Amino acid sequence: MKSKITDEILQVINRIPETYFNQIYSDLKKCSRIFVWGLGRSGLVARAFAMRLRHLGRESYFVGEICPAISKNDVLIVISKTGNKSMLLSPIESAKKSGAKIISITSGKNKLAKISDKLLVLPLCDSIQFGGSLFEQTTLIFLDEFVEFYRRKEKIPFEQMQKNHVDWE
Question: Which of 27, 58, 71, 78 has the most other CB atoms within 10 Å of its CB?
């Protein structure tokens, strides 16, 4: 069983276009602040990514927690496999009205894709797992790979990231 799940994850990860890294990077280099949004397990992945962006020294927020108003110089990254839930779309439409750039990570054409400025579609395969597990797993790995891509491009040493890491422990 274990190898089937990891094989699924690797199959998707290996099919994600390398160009996605540069696409996100170029948008994040131009923006003032980064907001990340998702519901359910996708929301957990979004929170983890927002936290890593903070470790990189970027001003980032998870929508729904304490955060300022979004503006035209900001980017909203939305993570949703289905991209169709009205609860998901309402904050995105508000961000769009403010002029923020919307980047979506999803699994195909959906309502979210229609309102996004940039669409990153993860090439999912059939899965033996329940629900959106494969989407969430591959999104987490893809975004962790992006963090390393960004860190290397910006020449951010781990020591700097550690300074931005929680020290309450």
Answer: 78
